[in-house]
Design goal:
This protein has helices at 3-10, 57-70, 81-87, 89-102, 131-134, 136-159, 165-168, 174-183, 194-200; strands at 16-22, 31-38, 71-79, 110-114, 125-128. By secondary structure, it is of the alpha/beta class. The chain has a single domain (3-200), classed as Ribonuclease H-like superfamily/Ribonuclease H (Nucleotidyltransferase, domain 5, 2-Layer Sandwich). It has a 5-stranded mixed beta sheet. A hairpin with an 8-residue loop joins β1 and β2 (31-38). It is globular.
Length: 202
């Protein structure tokens, strides 16, 4: 998992920021982007850090707290559904990544991202294929983003209990589709997504 970060550190390039998002494919709720600089990506206690999708919700909460203790800087950007609709999910994601990096307390010497290079960042950066699985800093960012977004979706579930957001977190599932067909979309649904647009224009 540590090859890329090790090569950079061996070359005297640090600190390193990892960046990842949660909620890109959801049809409801915000897009959440996190940027994380770890004190030491190779610290033994961080051996439990993995891609957030590979870890149970309960375990992610525990690792979230661990990352908070092991990071020198964390920044989270929350892009609401209305902004995702206005800008498009890809443009909103790239802008959120830039904001997440530039909002860190430290200026990173290098930025590693999951899948997408950050155009216009103004800092050296590299998009890593399956980065949330092979770079500790990106995995840490994926957990911070995922836990933050899940907490938002659980709170949203209390406001809109008819949709079951606490369960599916805004992604398209059979139960979510049934709820949409019964109640129609709420303000937290992304109108730019085809399944939501189809309901609006019925």
């Amino acid at each position: 998992m540590k090859v890329i970060e090790q090569l950079l550190i061996n070359a005297g390039i640090s600190p390193i920021a990892g960046v990842d998002e949660a909620g890109r494919g959801a049809c409801a709720g915000p897009l959440v982007i996190a940027s994380v600089i770890l004190k030491d990506p190779f610290a033994p206690e961080l051996s439990v850090v993995r891609d957030s999708k590979e870890i149970s919700e309960k375990k992610r909460e525990e690792i979230f707290d661990l990352i908070q203790r092991c990071a020198t800087s964390i920044n989270v950007v929350i892009v609401p559904a209305l902004e995702v609709d206005a800008r498009g999910v890809h443009a909103a994601n790239l802008d959120g990544m830039r904001r997440a990096v530039h909002g860190l307390d430290q200026v990173p010497a290098y930025v590693l991202t999951d899948g997408y290079a950050i155009e216009g960042l103004g800092l050296p950066n590299l998009a890593v294929w399956k980065g949330d699985q092979v770079v500790v800093s990106i995995s840490a960012a994926s957990i911070i983003a995922k836990v933050t977004r899940d907490r938002i979706m659980r709170a949203m579930d209390e406001q809109y209990p008819q949709f079951g957001f606490a369960g599916h977190k805004g992604y398209i599932t059979a139960s979510h589709t049934r709820a949409l067909n019964e109640h129609g979309p709420c303000i937290e649904h992304r109108r730019s997504f085809s399944n939501i647009a189809a309901l609006i224009h019925k």
